[in-house]
Design brief:
It is built from twelve helices and ten strands. By secondary structure, it is of the alpha/beta class. Strands 1, 2, 3, 4, 5, 6, 7, 8, 9 and 10 form a ten-stranded mixed beta sheet that branches. Helix 2 crosses helix 9 and helix 9 crosses helix 12. It is globular and about 60 Å long.
Length: about 325
């Protein structure tokens, strides 16, 4: 009778070895972070004017990112504001930026290049519109600006957008009924101080250091704008992103003698494009949420960044990486 047992044993041994190899491979695949390499490389973050909140927020976020994603080198690039920031994203000159929701809506409505590629990581904090005049000024409302020299922000800024819309809501033509002065927050306070303008619009987080510093040098007043919200909403389009808000009395302790000021607010969004790596976007979004309290010590409005509100980024949908982060921390 032929001896078949040794052959069967060898065959079983071979099958067992293959099975063990497969199991080991699966175990190794499970344990090792294959395909989950830490993001690395250089990215550009477009901010705003040097004395604005966007720039300060970018600097503080960069410090947090250096700890959370040490292989990522984030470079800041100043800008004139939201409109220029969005154009840089679309063209690939920047990877991340901050922009107001109304500026994003206008960029989309105007079908600007790359508008369909814009994505959001988080809703950050609200900008408050501030109309600043000398304390003794006769200007008590936006309508009183008729015939006066008014700084309305630079071309390409979110300030210019909201200033024009507020003037129109007050029944004024931004080009003919005032003397518009193109200036940013880095020069507006000096122009008011030297008598070069009668008023200036600014839209930013509270407090804005340039306005606070001006209030410590000269007596100024913040003009109420809250009565214009209904007119803004009636205009439709991007104006639907404005809401009624109140600047608290302690926002600028030297102004208004401790009285709160009704105004208009609009949300700021952390924006990127669909070209950005999902792992990088997830990591940056995580860093934004984790650093809320630390950044909030310097940018007080940033204390409002919250998981419950961060996902509401209308008119943009969330980037895939941001969605991944929010799903991972969902209770």
């Amino acid at each position: 009778m032929p001896q078949v047992l040794p052959g069967i044993s060898r065959r079983r041994a071979l099958q067992g070895a293959v099975a063990a190899f497969v199991v080991s491979g699966l175990l190794l695949w499970w344990l090792l972070p294959i395909g989950e390499t830490s993001p690395r490389g250089r990215i550009t973050f477009s901010t705003g004017v040097t004395t604005g909140v966007y720039q300060l927020y970018g600097e503080l976020l960069g410090e947090s990112l250096a700890r959370d994603l040490p292989e990522v080198d984030m470079r800041l690039r100043t800008s004139e504001g939201s409109q220029q920031n969005l154009a840089r994203l679309a063209s690939g000159e920047a990877d991340f930026t901050i922009a107001t929701a109304d500026a994003v809506a206008k960029y989309q409505r105007d079908r600007m290049p790359g508008a369909e590629r814009l994505r959001s990581c988080a809703r950050l904090y609200d900008d408050y519109v501030q109309l600043v005049v000398e304390k003794g000024s006769e200007v008590r409302s936006a309508a009183d600006l008729r015939g006066r020299r008014v700084a309305v922000g630079q071309d390409g800024s979110g300030v210019r957008l909201v200033a024009n819309r507020l003037l129109e809501a007050a029944g004024l033509d931004p080009e003919r009924d005032i003397v518009p002065v193109s200036a940013g927050i880095n020069t507006m306070p000096r122009l008011l101080e030297e008598g070069g303008i009668d008023a200036f619009f600014w839209s930013g987080g509270l407090p804005t250091s340039a306005v606070r510093n001006l209030s410590e040098r000269m007596a100024i007043r913040l003009v109420s704008l809250g009565d214009l919200v209904d007119e803004l909403h009636a205009a439709g389009g991007a104006s639907r992103h404005y809401r009624s808000a109140v600047m608290p009395a302690d926002a600028y302790s030297e102004v208004r003698g401790g009285v709160a000021v009704p105004t208009v607010a609009v949300a700021n969004l952390l924006v990127t494009t669909d070209r950005t790596d999902a792992g990088l976007t997830e990591g940056l979004t995580r860093s934004v949420i984790r650093s809320r309290d630390r950044i909030g010590n310097e940018v007080h409005a940033a204390q409002l960044v919250d998981l419950r509100t961060a996902i509401y980024t209308d008119p943009l949908r969330l980037h895939e990486g941001a969605q991944r982060y929010y799903r991972s921390v969902k209770p």
